[in-house]
Every structure is written in C-alpha cells, then in structure tokens.
Design brief:
By secondary structure, this protein is an alpha+beta fold. The protein has three domains: 27-149, Arc Repressor Mutant, subunit A (Orthogonal Bundle); 160-250, no CATH class; 264-334, no CATH class. Helices cover 60% and strands 14% of the residues. The chain has a three-stranded antiparallel sheet with strand order 4-8-7. Strands 1-2 form a two-stranded antiparallel sheet. A two-stranded antiparallel sheet has the order 3-9.
Amino acid sequence: KKIKEGRKIFYRIRLNGNIVKKIHQKRYIKFNRKQLVQIADEDNVALRIYQYLSMKRFDKNTGEYRIEVLAGIVPLKMFATRKIKNNKGEIKEYKFSTLSQVLKRIKKAFDVLMKLNYITNYSVKKIKEEKSYMFKFTFGTEECHVSTYIKKNKNLNMTSTLKLKEQNLFNLEIPENLALEIEKTKRNIYFSKSYNINVEKKLLELYNKKGFEYVKKILSQIYKGLKEEIKKDLTAYLISIDKNLTKLKNDKCITKDLKKEKFDDSIKEGIENESNKLIALLYANLDHEKKSEIERKAYKIFVDEAGDTPMQQKIYKKEMVKMSYIQKAIKEMYKI
C-alpha cells in the first residue's frame, strides 16, 4: 500500500506466505574459514559449488544436481551471442551453446573437491532429450559440512504485566496518519526506548483535542531535539512541550494585538487632530493633477520610512494609513 506524506512516500508491505514460511524454516551452517581458504587457493569455482552443496545437505551422503543449477551458482553462461557480418554487409547476431565449456569447467571444480576429500566420487549422466547433464556425487563424511535447522524454544513464558500491556496497545485505535508520525519519531532511539502505552494515550488525547498538525509539531520537536535519555517519564516530557507551545502561541497573539492596536490608535489620533482636519479639507478641494502629485509624494515618504515590500504595499492601501501620509506630504509641500 502506497502512503504519501508531503514529499515523502512510504510503503506498507504484507509478506507473501512463502516468504513467511522461509523465515520460519531458518537454517544455519558454520564454515571453517581455514577450509574455505584451502579450497579458494585451489579453485574459486570449486569453493562456490562446495558452499552451495553444503548448505543444501541435510543428513545426506549423496546428492544430484543438473548442470544448469551448478552453472548458475558460479555463475557460468550456458549461451553466448556473436555478431557476424555476411556477404551482403548485414550484421547478424547468432546465439550458440557453451555447454561443453561449462561441463569441462564444472568437472574441474569437482576434481578439486575430490582431491581435498570433500567429495569421495562423482559421475556425469547425459540427458539426451533435454541436451543437459546431471551430476551425481557422494559427500566426504569427515570433511564436508552438514546444514541444520535452528531449534526453536517453544517454552516461552510471558509475564502477566506484558500481556496486559499488549492487550491495551491493541485496544487503542490510532489513526493511520498519527501512526505513521509515531513510527517516524521512533527512529530517535531515546524516544523509542521510553515509548509506552501512557505516551500513546497522551498523544491520542492531544490528537482529539488539538488536531493532527499540533501533534505532528510536538513529535517533530522530539525527533529533532531529544539527544539524550529522558530522566523523567516520556509522558511528562510530552506535557512540558505541550505547555511551552500553548504559552508561545498565546504570547504571539497578545503582542500582535497590542502592536496593531497601538498602530491604529496613533493613525486615528493623527487624522482626528484639528490641523489635520483642515489639511484633509484642503486636499478634498484640489484638482485631480494636484492630488496625484501629493499621492506620489505621500507614497515616497511611506517607502522611505517603511520600505517597498508587498506586505508594506498592502498596509499603505488602508485608507487611514494612506490619509496620514497624504497629510504629511501636504505639510511638507506647503510648509504647513
């Protein structure tokens, strides 16, 4: 399942039944490094074939494999292509079999394994119908390795507290977008160590009260800022971040409102002044050309004081702001 979060893409994968089966049936083999070096010194192809045969051997003294399988292990190509130019000047590509060369090379590898007593004997049988060969061999019982399955311990005793915790985890219904963010934050080792059911409950509570974006911001701060083990509980750490964010948001709102109120009041006072009322009356009785000249001057004064950014242009378009700078321009031009 493809899940897109902003620019990043995540994939939720469900394993195929065959893959799961292979994981359950793990097997191991311990090779003697000295023996591997000994085979490698003689022939690298023999080493690869030996490792494969040993991994496939489970308490058996004999084995048989087709030439195609053994060629794939090395690897050796069973077919080759060649480009030939004909009498007409056309280049044609021809495919031909390299079976005889591959057979010689694998026989050489088996001879090396016989010499080192990893294989006691081998024979090659031709399969005429399929134009192939079958290698049959007997393992050296003393030297050649045996692959075995890993034994599983079935007597796993889980404590009651762990069971209760697991039960609680499954009972909580976490939204998909929140679950993804939690998984991303778990890449921080200190967060993943302290993560528990109480943290999950707190995150869900914040999600329901303040929304996904707010929780995402908290998790982002934890992921980037948590660089040592938490002395207290992770839930307490979450609560402290929540309080800090709420306080910061409130402070911003208060300062913004105060600034706006102060700015509006100063302009209002300037316009409502008696001398400014007369200037406004004078401006209203001027012709269009004179008004345009005063407006250009007013805008120049505004740009010198505040700048010419798109944000400042929006502020200047407000009627009170524009009128206050028109009054300044008239005072400057007519020396009032």
